[in-house]
Amino acid sequence: MDELISIDSRCPLLEKLKLELTTPHRDFDRNGRVMVESKKDLAKREIPSPNVADAFIMAFAPIDTSLDIWEQLGRQA
């Protein structure tokens, strides 16, 4: 399911975030999957590492539920 993310326009790093999210080039691999330009390739173009974009993406990444499973197992013991 797709989800919409809304960012407050008063976000202090909004312009930097938009720049970092839109700078990397994209391409397709042999299987037709989208590939995003690597940090190594960005560095070759003298573009700094997209740290704000990395943090943003990680904040919305799916959560590993393995911790939930361990918690449930602990309750059963």
3D architecture notes:
- The chain has 77 residues and is mostly helical.
- The protein has one domain (14-76).
- The protein is built from 4 helices and 2 strands; from the N terminus they run H-E-E-H-H-H.
- A two-stranded antiparallel sheet has the order 1-2.
- The mean pLDDT is 88.
Distance between the termini: 35 Å
Number of strands: 2
Say what oligomer this is.
Answer: single chain
The sequence of SSEs as H and E is HEEHHH
Task: Give the radius of gyration.
Answer: 18 Å
Number of domains: 1
Provide the β-strand percentage band. 5-15%
Give average pLDDT, whole number. Answer: 88
Strand order of the largest sheet: 1-2
Helix and strand composition category: mainly alpha
Total helix count? 4
What is the helix fraction of residues, given as a range? 40-55%
Uncertain segments are none
User: What gross morphology would you assign?
Assistant: extended
Largest sheet: 2 strands, antiparallel
Give the key terms.
two-stranded antiparallel ribbon, 4 helices, single chain, mainly alpha, 77 residues
In brief, what are we looking at here?
This protein is mainly α. The protein contains four helices and two strands, in the order H-E-E-H-H-H. A two-stranded antiparallel ribbon has the order 1-2.
